[in-house]
Design brief:
Elements (H helix, E strand, L loop, with lengths): L2 H10 L2 H10 L28 H24 L3 E5 L13 H15 L5 E5 L13 H8 L4 E7 L4 H13 L10 E5 H14 L3 E6 L3 E6 H10 L4 E3 L9 E5 L4 E8 L2 E8 L5 E8 L2 E4 L1 H8 L4
Parallel strand pairs: 3-5
Antiparallel strand pairs: 1-2, 2-3, 4-8, 5-6, 6-9, 7-8, 9-12, 10-11
Helix pairs in contact: 2-8, 4-7
Length: about 300
């Protein structure tokens, strides 16, 4: 039995608890229908018509996090090959071609699930370095050889500093808020991640890239935590368009890397078709050193 064939059945054992616990927290059942393709939309999807500076800045942060993690993986795990799989299309809302691309992406996700950002293969596997703009049909032959998949998220925090400051505050008797930063997983993403895993059965992890560190957790553990009913909260943060979001302390995952250099920041400027000027900052440079053994263990879902 392959690792993927063993991995997916373990994931399915958590579903009853996942659905029950999220329903108990008020999540609508339409976000909790696992298995198979999603239903066609009952009405035409609303297409964003404009991309403002906050969106552009968050996208720049996400791009930086993917680049930093990919480069770190290549340096440390020399027997692995990193392949870009998630979309790298940078057509923003307001562009004449945006609507077509946006609707095509929704339909692809409905049928096949959410593509992870990165795929990992053993060095020597015949696969291109970038599959991001190729269709699912074109990429399917490669997926049977993938050993792991990664969803990458960025954060504006220094996680280790955050944890240390909270500890000092507690030790001094001060009441504090959240003790650690969180892995943040939108509730609606659970179904579309599961849909992709159901079809391709490649162990998938979630990496949160901070400015001073990288924490990772396998989706198997995310589902297990939610299925257990404890170890997470549900919030609706503004940065996630107030969508219900699962918050799991990063200490429930694994510290797999520390920063060797912090990024600098440069201003970028975009003028919309209607003449609005959007300025935002973009991280540049930086670097991380990963713990090879810890990274392998998380990404391959090894116990």
């Amino acid at each position: 039995m392959s690792r993927g064939d063993a991995y997916f059945p373990m994931l399915t054992t958590t579903l009853e608890g996942v659905v029950g616990n999220l329903r108990a927290k008020g999540i609508d059942k339409r976000h909790l229908t696992f298995g198979g393709e999603g239903l066609p939309p009952g009405r035409k999807p609303t297409v964003p018509t404009d991309a403002r500076s906050e969106f552009l800045a968050n996208r720049a942060m996400g791009d930086w996090a993917e680049r930093m993690l990919s480069a770190s993986l290549v340096r440390v795990l020399t027997d692995w090959k990193v392949v870009q799989y998630g979309s790298t299309d940078r057509i923003a809302a307001g562009h004449p071609e945006f609507k077509t691309h946006y609707l095509a992406g929704l339909e692809e996700t409905r049928r096949f699930g959410k593509r992870p950002d990165l795929l990992l293969f053993l060095v020597g596997t015949p696969v291109d370095a970038d599959l991001s703009e190729r269709s699912h049909t074109d990429t399917e032959p490669f997926l049977k050889n993938a050993i792991a998949a990664v969803e990458v998220r960025s954060s504006k925090f220094d996680a280790l500093k955050y944890i240390a400051v909270r500890k000092r505050q507690r030790d001094s008797g001060k009441k504090t808020g959240r003790e650690t930063p969180s892995f943040t997983v939108k509730v609606e993403d659970l179904v579309i991640v599961y849909r992709w895993l159901e079809q391709y059965r490649v162990p998938q992890s979630y990496c949160q890239v901070f400015f001073d560190s990288v924490f990772a957790i396998n989706f198997l553990n995310i589902f297990a935590i939610v299925g257990s009913g404890s170890g997470f909260t549900i919030e609706k943060p503004e940065k996630s368009q107030e969508k219900a979001t699962i918050m799991i302390p990063i200490t429930s995952g694994v510290l797999i890397g520390r920063a060797t250099a912090k990024p600098t920041f440069a201003a970028e400027h975009r003028v919309t078709e209607l003449g609005r000027h959007d300025a935002y900052v973009v991280p540049q440079g930086g670097g991380f050193k990963l713990d090879a053994a810890a990274t392998r263990k998380v990404f391959l879902a090894e116990t």
